[in-house]
C-alpha cells in the first residue's frame, strides 16, 4: 500500500463528525468569555451585598464590572455615602477604575481623596490636609465603616478626606 497524506481538518467538514481546530478554538474562546462574565457578575453581586451590609443608603444600586473597571449607578442619600460606595468598590481586589454614575439626593461639598503610601498614618495625613495631626479622627470617621481601626491602613488604599466644618 503506502503512506497517504490527508487534510486533517477536512473530516469534520465532509462527514459532520468532530470539530476543526478553528471550531475548537472558537468554542474555547466562547467558554472562556462566558466564565469571565460569570466571575465579573459574581464580583459585582458581592460588592452590592457589601455596600448593603455596610448600611450605605443607595437606592437602585447597580454595579457592573468589565475587566478591571467597575461602573456604579444608583441614588446615594448624600455625598459622603456616594464617596464611601466608590471607595468600597475601588478598594476591592481586581478593581483599578470606578466609573461613578451615581446621583445624590442631599448634596454637600465633595471630599478629597488620598492614596495611602508606605509610612502614612492617619495623623500624618491629617497634618497634610488639615495642618493638625490631632484631626485624624475626622478622617477615621469619614472612612467608617470601611475602616475599623485608625491604625489599620495600608499602602494603595484610598481614603476620603472631608472638608472641615
What does this molecule look like?
With 165 residues, the protein is an alpha/beta fold. It has two domains: 89 residues, Alpha-Beta Plaits (2-Layer Sandwich), CATH 3.30.70; 55 residues, LysM domain (Membrane-bound Lytic Murein Transglycosylase D, Chain A, Roll), CATH 3.10.350.10. 41% of the residues lie in helices and 21% in strands. It has five helices and six strands; from the N terminus they run ααββαβββααβ. Strands 1, 2, 3 and 4 form a four-stranded mixed β-sheet that branches. A two-stranded antiparallel ribbon has the order 5-6. The longest helix has 33 residues. The termini are far apart. The mean pLDDT is 89. Its main location: cytoplasm. InterPro entries: Bact_Kbp, BON_dom, LysM, LysM_dom_sf. Keywords: Coiled coil, Cytoplasm. This is Potassium binding protein Kbp. It is found in: Cytoplasm.
Amino acid at each position: 500500500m503506502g503512506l497517504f497524506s490527508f487534510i486533517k481538518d477536512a473530516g469534520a467538514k465532509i462527514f459532520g463528525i468532530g470539530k476543526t481546530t478553528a471550531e475548537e478554538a472558537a468554542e474555547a474562546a466562547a467558554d472562556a468569555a462566558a466564565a469571565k462574565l460569570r466571575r465579573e457578575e459574581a464580583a459585582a453581586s458581592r460588592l452590592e451585598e457589601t455596600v448593603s451590609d455596610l448600611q450605605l443608603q443607595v437606592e437602585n444600586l447597580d454595579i457592573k464590572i468589565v475587566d478591571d473597571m467597575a461602573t456604579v449607578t444608583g441614588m446615594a442619600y448624600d455625598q459622603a455615602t456616594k464617596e464611601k460606595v466608590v471607595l468600597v468598590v475601588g478598594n476591592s481586589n481586581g478593581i483599578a477604575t470606578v466609573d461613578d454614575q451615581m446621583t445624590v439626593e442631599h448634596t454637600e461639598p465633595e471630599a478629597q481623596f488620598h492614596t495611602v503610601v508606605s509610612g502614612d498614618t492617619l495623623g500624618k495625613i491629617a497634618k497634610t490636609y488639615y495642618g493638625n495631626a490631632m484631626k485624624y479622627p475626622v478622617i477615621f470617621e469619614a472612612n467608617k465603616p470601611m475602616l475599623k481601626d485608625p491604625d489599620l491602613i495600608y499602602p494603595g488604599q484610598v481614603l476620603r478626606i472631608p472638608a472641615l466644618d
